[in-house]
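Continuing the batch. This is chain 6 of the set; chains 1 through 5 are on the previous pages. Same settings as before, nothing changed between runs. Recording input and output for traceability.
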Amino acid sequence: MVDISDLPKTKNLIELFLNRADSKGDAPFLWAKRQGAWQPLSWTEVARQVCCLAESLRSMGLQDGDRVMLVSENRPEWCIADMAIMAAGCITVPAYVTNTERDHQHILEDSGASAVIVANEKLSKPLIGALVRTGTARHVIGIEPLGITQASNFEYHAWSDLIAGEGKDPRAKVQARIAKIGREDIACLIYTSGTGGAPRGVMQHHGSLLMNADGAARILAEDFGLDEHDAFLSFLPLSHAYEHTGGQMLPISVGAQIYYAEGLEKLASNIEETRPTIMVVVPRLFEVLRTRIMKQVEKQGKVANYLMDRAMSIGANKAAGRARWREKPMDLLLERTLRPKIRARFGGRMKAMVSGGAPLSPEVGVFFESMGLTMLQGYGQTEAGPVISCNRPRAGLKMDTVGPPLHGVEVKIAEDGEILVRGELVMHGYWRNEAETAKALQNGWLHTGDIGHLDEAGRLVITDRKKDMIVNDKGDNISPARVEGLLTLQPEIAQAMVVGDRHPYIVGLVVPDTEWAIEWAQANGEKFDMKDLQNLPAFRSAVRAAVDRVNQDLSVIEKVRQFAFADEPFTIDNEELTPKQSIRRHKIKARYGERLEALYRG
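Output for chain 6:
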């Protein structure tokens, strides 16, 4: 078991990493699937590559505080590059692989990056134009061959050459350099995903990430126990603060292994193969997994369906604090029949699945708890490292909360209900943006822009985003996230967005679930074409029935009176979803604003 007591005293993230590497030695650390088999890199080998790459960056002329942009899918080289950039005394600037040329140009210009590390030729294509136009980056490093040699305004380097080391041991130089890096120094600039406009560079310092890792590690150690076989499956983009901290810095802090998933289409098989003990995931994935599990069980006959119904009933009673003694025999039966089969699909040794990045519907959390899988919901934002609070068994799991604040985090509620946060986890501000920094940081408190309250046990309850809150024509406040979450739990609805600001009632935009639509078309003798189906009164009535079911559980002011169909799903490619799967309201409203306004005209 790793001793995590050194986390509060550690000066910087590279010191933490090298200490863990010295302790773990030749034990496996980073895993990737290559040629059909999972292959590891040891802690010792990763440390060697980190130090070699760090010294190669310095030999290019990079200085303390220079920014280095990192454009790569999740893979071992992402972690190595991130650690090496910081070991060189520089600042990592992660960028999403889904970024357009315009997105890359904004980040290059705003950060003033001196160098770029890019994974492969495909990811370099939208980047090259931005590099040429901005002219900020003097060096481009290709993890794989990029199909270029040199360009007029930057020098190209091959990754393999930079990590070779040429027989030298650069560890001593790295040690000497990082001795000067303190917890207050900037570790990375993470650009917000832009749900409300142009991304801003959040200055995360070493202490912010170390404090986050410490708080999360305490939960794992105290509530679940740590051991040498702990493993994380990295799936969410590492360029997002949630995965960067929860999927990389946290496993480093506890000496765990990291497996890199091959992608969404292979995630289910990757989970069974790697048998992770911890997974960090966004709510949308849990919603998809819940739907798949329910459909698979439905096809297994009456007995399987009966067991699932009983499991969900018992789980709901437990969540509501109404556990019944007479349900104990059935609970024991479920532990021997249904639940082991469900747990096996998640590798069979899952300690906890942690949901974050967006609100999790309590029904989804209760479902997985009912299936015998521990579900934790966390809350945070990039500006706070990003984790502010998290459910934990010791505090009493309650799925309509996001748990108590992490160790060392102060939370208070402003008079208007806004959640304010203080502690070492809070950012130093937005890069070169004093006006926005002044709005977010006031008198030492981070103004999160989220609305919520603390319950009687000190657990945080999130109501909504302050700026997203709908205020109807009567002045009533309505949470769109709550209504949208309930809509997307219906099998007929994959995605939804509701509006109603300064209007008498709520209307919605709906994306039908494709699998459900295919089944509906087959059952009704129709050819499957989503656009054609949306024009059929019977199809619309079926979706209307789903909306009406949701309305039964909503207050009068929350009910969705009218809805329209979206032309296509909200995706990252059409810029209507962020990389963490949150809807970009301003983008969707710009596209469908007239259609939604027409719903108020009859």
